[in-house]
UniProtKB/TrEMBL annotation:
Signal peptide: none
Protein name (Swiss-Prot/TrEMBL): Diguanylate cyclase/phosphodiesterase with PAS/PAC sensor(S)
Species this protein is from: Gottschalkia acidurici (strain ATCC 7906 / DSM 604 / BCRC 14475 / CIP 104303 / KCTC 5404 / NCIMB 10678 / 9a) (Clostridium acidurici)
Listed InterPro entries: Biofilm_reg_signaling (IPR052155), EAL_dom (IPR001633), EAL_sf (IPR035919), GGDEF_dom (IPR000160), Nucleotide_cyclase (IPR029787), Rev_trsase/Diguanyl_cyclase (IPR043128)
EAL domain location: 523-777
Alphabetically ordered keywords of this record: Membrane, Transmembrane, Transmembrane helix
Amino acid sequence: MDYNRKKKLAYASVSLYIMIYYIWLVFFKNNNPHFNTVANVFHTIPILITSIVLFKIHKRRHNKRDYFWLILSIGIATNLIAQLVKDYYEIFLNMNTPTPGVTDIFWILSTFFFWIALFYKCYHKRIKRSNLILMLDTMTTMCIAVAVVWTYIISPNVTDLQGINILAILTYVFYPIIGFGILSCSVSLYLSMDRTDIDKRSFIMIVVAFLIMCIGDLGYSYLEFKGNYATGSLVDPLLSIYKFILLLSGLEYLSDLSNNKQSLKAKQTSKCSIESISMILGIIIIVLFCFVLTKQDIVIWICFGVSITLINIRQIIVSFQNKNLIEKLRDLNETLEMKVKERTEEFFNIAFYDHLTELPNRRLFEHKLKKLIDDSNINRNTIALMLLDLDRFKIVNDTMGHSFGDLLLKEVAKRLNNCMDANCTIFRQGGDEFAVIVENVESKQTIIEVSERILKELVKPINLDGYHTYVTCSIGVAIYPEDGDNYDTLSRHADTAMYHSKELGKNTYTFYGYEMDRLASRKLTIERELYKAIERDELTLDYQPQVDIFTSEIVGVEALIRWNHPEYGIIPPLEFIPVAEETGLIGSIGDWVLKEACMQAKEWHDMGYSFLKMGINISPHQFQQEDFTTIIKQTLEEIKLDPKYLDLEITESVAMENEDIVISKLNELRGIGIKVSMDDFGTGYSSLSYLKRFPIDTLKIPREFVIDIGSNEDNKSIIEAIITIARKLNLNIVAEGVENNVQLDFLKSKNCANVQGYLFSKPVSNQIFETMLRNNRI
């Protein structure tokens, strides 16, 4: 049987029991020798049942630390002891119960247990109100109760009680007064609960129970003062009813516990206003007693004075509590405002700033650029948009890992920030792309200065976690309003200019020009024509000698591809090689270069120049082919060229694609005698550890460092470092791009023997190179 059915059965049983009880008292009082015995039994049974049921409810409570129902059951059990003593006197001894006597001690003790239970509930629920306030409210109510009892019970009967001792009077008065105190305490506790409290519904019945107890105690005291009380009085069932209602409240608690009837949203009762109204009504009652219902009754005036004093004390305490609450609320509000401000700033940073570099992000970039364009439509200011893209950055993420790439981006962001003027704002667009907005541009020279500062700052060596590397970037510039009068157009043109910088060889800046549209069209034409170039035999090789600067003798040669188009003329490698890499044609072109260069080397060897070593550039795409080493071997075997005279020039990007695969392929090539050179060393993401692990024979100092030897001390230091590293690792050195004697003298001073460049010879045809070989001196 579930709790709901048990509850309904209990309600029906209690109602039937009380009805039978009253029938017995009304219809069987006269001429029945067992009347008192049955009346006492009727009064004893509810107490016994209630004490047992409340104890069982305590054992089934949801919170094992809650002893409210246990204390309440002890109070009822104490009441049971008093009733059993009364039964003993009246049933077994056939005499009236002495009053005051032992029974009164236990009855009074039971009321104290009720009070303890209520205060414990207040403490256990941690209700946000002072126990002192609860006590003052209870005492005020008791003063009102004293006034009521004095007015209606004691005062009218005081002349009839001349022979009654004072202890009896105090006992009779105590019951209703303490009852009103318990009622007041239970009401205050009920009003302090919210609707999420599982005790809420059951506690209203506890309030009703104590209300009926007060009425019963008032009736009992009134009859005792009148001398009309006897066992079987009509007030006795009231004292049984309140115990039954306590029992039913416990069943309601178990029912709510089983049904888990907790509201999702708590609604606080307006406690303060209800309690204040209750106190005001109590004072009005006492005032009526003082000025209307009574004359100059000293007891009523004492009650009035005590009540006013208690209420004043209560209000003083409440005012202090309210002051503390206001201060706490103010502190909480300040804390909340600070938290909201911090969280707002946090959300703003998340929304508009890049978490890695701490630079403004693309969203803030778009917002600011659009706003500046709108403002410039009014104030006619000139705005420059610079888009920056790091050259070959993808390699670092693929080979060194994203953690290293993140460190590099943070360092780049720091350096870019150092290049900014007051009118410049740097943004991170995402990945390895950055943007700079320059406001109030007076001339292009301003943008040139910013661009050159950026390029100069980034090219400085970077040391991260023991890795020595260099960074370059390509910059595209578009100026508002001449290059675009809205956000989309300006951004697109800056992007076009940036890619044009990459096509020019990277590490440079380009201003957008409308001729770039023509260049884009030319790029599409080159892509289309490149597919036919090999078939139509339009590709040729030129050869640039590598010279020993101390003997001026040719020691090697580098094969360089050229494209002679029948309609467009000579198309430089910087223009068509990137297209070949993008389209995948670089593989077939690379195979053609390999075969042609090896055939030419074999021819020169057969002519008697067997010392000549042929250098061939290998693209990353070509090197990554699975059959790359097989193609090399087959070509050498087919042409009958000794592998030791083939020098494959790879870039750092090739060496950093996949370490294990790169090492395996290089070892396989060197195993048959092929030489390997690291081309453009130091212009990318170099790592000294690669030089130690990878089987490399030669380091080639890039033209970018050599060309500024006469004007850039940093480049001199870099060249010295590369030469030192090569010697420590027993590597050969070749300096590229030597064009004047200043550069030559510096390289001589550093004992860099082998060089190539326009100072000795530009790339030439095979016929011209043969003439050089015959002279064997440049």
